[in-house]
Design brief:
globular, seven-stranded antiparallel sheet, mainly beta, four-stranded antiparallel sheet, Immunoglobulin-like, 2 helices, 14% helix, 11 strands, 153 residues, single chain
Length: 153
């Protein structure tokens, strides 16, 4: 049994180092690793050459919506997860976000600490880019509110 655990642990570590597949990273509160990017009034999906596959937008507060997306790079061999937050308020809205990428072998979760989303604008919490040729989908949260999962990217 101990040998099996050791081999499984070594395999997961090697996979994470090589970046060939997703490896378990724990919860967003422990993992962090995500980063916020402000888009102002530019729609992040339509301004990108990558393929975004997103879940439906869910209201997370009055006049604030969020959706989770799996993003496939134009070349196809790299993916990211994202939580898009749209603030339609006339003042800033503070939110945290968590995104999990799921593929056939593992789930990896990243988080973005609470940040202010400017009035009438978009901000996106991006996971790091991961090399992955398999289909992935994303799930996530904005301010603790579960968002509908994306389709496969």
């Amino acid at each position: 049994m101990r040998v099996t655990r050791t081999i499984a642990g070594a395999t997961a570590a090697l996979t994470a180092v090589l970046g060939l597949s997703l490896a378990t990273a724990g919860s967003a509160s422990a993992a962090g690793g995500g980063s916020w990017h402000a888009y102002g009034n530019t729609n992040p999906i339509t301004s990108s050459s990558s393929t975004w596959v997103c879940g439906t937008t869910k209201t997370v507060a009055s006049e604030v919506g969020a959706q989770v997306c799996a993003i496939r790079a134009p070349g196809g061999g790299a993916v990211q997860g994202a939580v898009i937050v749209r603030n339609n308020r006339s003042s800033a809205y503070s939110t945290s976000a968590e995104v999990t990428l799921h593929d056939w072998s593992a789930d990896v979760t990243w988080g973005c600490a609470s940040s202010g989303v400017a009035a009438n604008s978009w901000s996106v919490c991006f996971s790091p880019t991961v090399a992955d040729d398999y289909y992935v989908y994303a799930s996530g949260y904005a301010n603790g509110v579960a968002l509908p999962a994306s389709g496969d990217a």
